[in-house]
Design brief:
By secondary structure, the chain is mostly helical. It contains 19 helices and four strands. A hairpin with a 2-residue loop joins strand 1 and strand 2.
Length: 564
Amino acid sequence: MIKIEYGTQRLSLRFFLLMLVLFLFQMLFGLLIATQHVDPTLLSGILNFNVLRAEHTNLGILWILCGFIGTILFIGPLLSRRELAAPWLIHVLFYALIVVTIWNVATQALAMDGIAGWWLGQPWLQEGLEYLEAGRAADIVIFIGFAILAYVVLRTFPPRRDWNEIHWGLAIGVSALTFVWLFGMFFVERIDLQEYFRWYVVHYWVEGVWEVIHISLVGFLLVLMFKAEVKAVGYAVFWGVAMVWLSGLIGNAHHYFWIGTPEFWQFWGSLFSALEPLPLVFCFWHIYLDAHQDKRPLENAPAFYFVLGSVVLEQVGAGILGFTMTFALTNVWSHGTWVTPSHAHLAMFGTFGMLGIASAYYAVPLLRGVKQFDQRLGRVAFWLVFTGMLGIAFAFAIGGTIQVFLYRAMGLSWFGGQLFPAMQLFKVLVPVFGLVFAVGAGLLIFDLLTLGLRQPSAAASEPRSQVNPPRVGWRSGLRGAEASLWLMGMWIFGAMITLGLLSFNLDTVALGDPTIPYVLAGLGYPGLLLITLLFVWRFLASLQARPHPVVGIQDDSALLAGRA
């Protein structure tokens, strides 16, 4: 690891700590709404499901943004080799985030009474648009915050002639983050046109802007962790960003299918959305290359565990499960059902949330001057969080498949409770796996909040052997051909899931026979999630074949400068 060279890097610590606090509350809201699925009367009239769901979603966006901002502020001086510009604005940005969070939480309760705070034709308190519930007052503060972030990043970076691909990726990301938000800052009475603009923000943020920032940050974290060549990482960042934008701009149309827009969007949206996994495959493959090019040891295991989890769940959740429901002929069945949150949880938390946690595990020990720390708690937390999230996705996916058949294909009443018995097992499994996830999240939050405040354990302080005996079998080195087979296996199960959703169009299914979609879903979802778990286990086990260094902080600044 590198030492802290720039004092303004320490400004990132408060964003990481705020991220952990918001993550804790978002997780608790998630457990509560999962329990309400089992017992819909729980807190009815006090904290209704729709309000809690909005809180859960909004806090998820806010803590992920905290992770992004913290990571950008931490690596900005390293990329630029100078202090962050305008540190006083960073203080303003931090307090603006706190104000927006409190405002957002407080005003969601007004939705139960239909209070939006209309004035001059705009909803100032809360507007009730999914993912964009914040009212116009908060929107303005958010816009100012994004503008501050863009200003600080662009002012900190060196002259453009000295930029590499990572500079360009982050510069495009923070600038687009600010610009795209403008589409969510006005009210349109026509619901179809309003949905256009809403998806401009939601889609272009998550599947455009956030992906660009994610690819750039993952690239630089690999430079820091494995001393990967900046030129090689920059090549991956360039093509990743290019493919995200080429596929994602028109791929946004898969949100237009059912909101009264022209029919031609069904073809073009399906086509370009199907191309969106390409940059994710590229990112998935490049993390293998960067982690294996010099066979460097893992100095900070928890940080890399969560980076790997981020990229793998990006491939599985955003790429494969996103692909399965991106066609109009599959989306007509999955849209608005439990199949969608299966994709959304893996994609949102997996891709962006895990990256923030990985960055925190890399940065917090350095920012607090911890030369040695016990990494076992972070590793255990990763496996609990990773397994719990896969389990949540499984419960949503299988429960959603039943829901699609009974609700959409057979036309039973969702609100009349006729689906409740059929989905009961999976309604229970969501909070069960949620508890597994919560235990892991609690461990990592405790671990990161108390790093530097606890005495390192004896195990963490003992030197480790620099040489490991050659490993064979499961713990042997992971070769490219084997990694390709794992990736191919994931996509084979993804194809089964896609065919299962397509099979709802068959006449036999419409006549009441769910055999084909149930069999394909019963093979596809468990197979995909199990192979994902096994691949991550195999990848991390293969790293044990490398020499183990003493866990500590080394001064690699000269090496980093040479490679940059």
